[in-house]
Amino acid sequence: MNTSATAANRQFATETLESAVIRFCGDSGDGMQLTGGEFTTTSAVYGNDVATFPDFPAEIRAPAGTLPGVSGFQVNFASTEIYTPGDKVDVLVAMNPAGLKTNIADLKGGGILIVNEDAFNNNNLKKAGYASNPLEDESLKEFRLFKIPISRLCEESLAETGMGAKAIGRAKNMYTLGIVYWLFDRSLEPTIKHLTDLFAKKKNQPELAELNIKALKAGYYMGETAEMFQSRYVVPKAKLAPGKYRQISGNEATALGLIAGARLANKTLTYAGYPITPASDILHFLSAYKNYHVKTLQMEDEIAAICAAIGASFTGDIAITASSGPGIALKGEGIGLAVMTELPVVIVNVQRGGPSTGLPTKTEQADLLQAVYGRNSECPCIVIAARSPGDCFDAAVEAIRLAIKYMTPVMLLTDGYIANGAEPWLLPQVGAMKPIEIKHATEFNGHSDDADGEGNNVYLPYLRNENLARPWAIPGTPKLEHRVGGLEKAENTGNVSYDPRNHQRMVDLRQAKVEKVAQDIPPTEIQGESSGDALIIGWGGTYGAIHAATERLLKRQQKVGTVHLRHINPLPPDLGDIIKRFKHIIVPELNKGQLIRIIRDHFLVDAVGINKVQGKPFLVSELVAEIEGIIAR
Amino acid sequence: MTQIELPKYTAKDFATDQEVRWCPGCGDYAILAAVRKVLPDLNHRKENYVFVSGIGCSSRFPYYMGTYGIHGIHGRAPAVATGVKAANPELDVWLVTGDGDGLSIGGNHLMHMLRRNVNIKVLLFNNRIYGLTKGQYSPTSLEGHRTKSTPMGSIDHPIHPISFALGVEATFVARCTDVNKGGLNILGDVLKAAANHRGSAFVEIYQDCNVFNHQAFFYATEKDTARETTVLLEHGKPLVFGANRDKGVRLNSTRLEVVSLDKVKEDDLLFHDETDPALAFLLSRMSHTQGMPEPVGVFHRIHKPCYEDMLTAQMNKAIEQRGEGNLEKLIHSGSTWTVGE
Question: Which of A109, A249, A343, A368 falls 20 to 30 Å from A132 in CA-CA distance?
Answer without folding.
Answer: A109
